[in-house]
Amino acid sequence: MASQLNPYLSFNGDARQALEFYKEVFGGTLSMNTYGEFGQEGTPDADKIMHGMLETPSGYTLMGADGAPGQEAQPGNNFSVALTGDDDAELRGYWEKLSADGSVSVPLEKQMWGDVFGMCTDRFGIPWMVNISQAES
């Protein structure tokens, strides 16, 4: 899979409604996973969206989620630029350059969903997410 660069939007509990709206606008296929599906069942956040992705017929990809507990999304901090794919060397190279002289909020390491993921803010204040898909075993 070729690496992709796309926006990742953050919401305060209305990610499902927003992503469904964007599906109405752009068409395409929408997939969503909740926090409850990833170990937070029975919590107030169980039905919130941990990750959603809209892939449109025009080739656009839009991702979004409700902020994790304690993370308030506000205008100006409610987006990231996401780099995704399965080319480990390429994406780690981007990560090293983007995080240099910036700040790392989530180290680039294996996550509960099986991929390698990290979050950083570059030296210009732009937030980035890097997700390296792992081969199915």
From TrEMBL:
InterPro entries per UniProt: Glyas_Bleomycin-R_OHBP_Dase, Glyas_Fos-R_dOase_dom, PhnB-like
Protein name (database record): VOC family protein
Every Glyoxalase/fosfomycin resistance/dioxygenase domain range: 5-130
Highest taxon listed in the record's lineage: Bacteria
